[in-house]
Write a structure and sequence with these properties.
The protein has 338 residues and is mostly helical. It has one domain. Helix content is 66%, strand content 2%. A two-stranded antiparallel ribbon has the order 1-2. Helix 2 packs across helix 10.
């Protein structure tokens, strides 16, 4: 999963918005983020550890942004020194940790279930705003909570012994908590800076986090130099694992983030976030068609109910859900996780 920039870039008088173009861009971003879940699943099944894939992804994105933006628009990356501590927290929670938990979750759970659990982050935001910050939110928050809980119960089919991996569920829940934290912090950080700068510094701090926790020299290069089948319907095809990792970084992260940022020049952030709700739908569909991970009719109904609850929670608090990370960075909130 991965995340969307919390605020739009200022629109200059010379800039003309093209909503149709923005809609195409944000839809393409959601498709790339959603498909990236299955690509990541193949990499994980090839023997790359979740924390190592998270480290490679964060570092690769930071370097990619520096190479793409630095030579032509380096001034956009500047932020005040006083903002760095908050950006560091955003980077560790909203990029490094959320991606780690997300990769653990999709490694142990069906892709669709893992992403749906993570996407409940905005519901946690609504509860925090109401119960802890004591801010007034619309009563619909309680309906959002109820829908999300009912939907998750349907997805997990709690009345049956579905044997969902406990560690995978815990990791997906931790990713949701990271996403909620990221959204709350992003409310106060994103609007003050260029979304490109926020995204860049988030991934820089995420890369620095992994430099300490999972240094590049400690990563097992064996799986990266091997070849792997693409599994499922594409099992007859093989690719080097390192090429799949590059796909996770480039096509699964840099490209959709760039599309989201471009879309923010044509659409409101709320619209970008709303269209980003396509991501779990795409992720589930791709996992079904590619990896053979199918959800039953009841689970699919539960997924729809979860997304309805998340949508209501966003409307009640004004947060923008993962459009990932986003993963899951500050514009798409799928924290940079997905």
């Amino acid at each position: 999963m991965t995340t969307a920039p919390p605020a739009t870039e200022p629109t200059t008088a010379a800039h003309v918005a093209h909503p149709g173009r923005g809609l195409v861009q944000v839809t393409a971003a959601a498709v790339l983020f959603g498909a990236n879940a299955s690509v990541s699943k193949v990499v994980l099944q090839a023997g790359v550890e979740p924390r190592q894939l998270a480290a490679l992804r964060c570092t690769g994105v930071a370097l990619g942004l520096l190479l793409l933006v630095g030579p032509t628009a380096g001034a956009r990356l500047r932020v005040p020194w006083r903002s760095l501590p908050q950006l560091a927290v955003l980077g560790v929670v909203g990029a490094a940790l959320i991606q780690w938990f997300y990769f653990v979750a999709i490694d142990r759970l069906p892709v669709g279930i893992a992403i749906l659990v993570e996407f409940t982050g905005p519901v946690l935001v609504a509860l925090w705003v109401r119960l802890v910050l004591r801010e007034q939110v619309r009563p619909v928050v309680w309906l959002a909570l109820g829908l999300s809980l009912v939907g998750l119960a349907l997805v997990a089919q709690v009345w049956e012994d579905t044997r969902l991996d406990a560690l995978g569920l815990a990791a997906a829940t931790a990713a949701a908590a990271c996403l909620a934290t990221f959204l709350l912090l992003g409310r106060h950080t994103g609007g003050a800076h260029d979304p490109v700068a926020v995204t860049f510094w988030m991934f820089v701090f995420a890369a620095l986090f992994w430099l300490v926790v999972e240094p590049p020299w400690s990563i097992d290069r064996g799986p990266l130099t091997d070849s792997t089948t693409l599994l499922g319907a594409l099992d007859s095809f093989t690719l080097p694992v390192w090429a799949m990792v590059l796909a996770v970084i480039g096509l699964g992260t840099l490209a959709p983030y760039a599309l989201d940022l471009a879309a923010l020049r044509h659409l409101p952030a709320a619209t970008v976030g709303a269209v980003g709700m396509l991501e779990p739908v795409v992720a589930t569909a791709v996992a079904w068609a590619w990896l053979g991970q199918s959800l039953g009719a009841v689970q699919l109904l539960g997924g729809v109910v979860v997304l309805a609850g998340v949508g209501l929670a966003q409307a009640a608090t004004g947060t923008v859900a993962p459009a990932r990370s986003q993963r899951r960075a500050t514009g798409r909130f799928g924290a940079p996780g997905r």
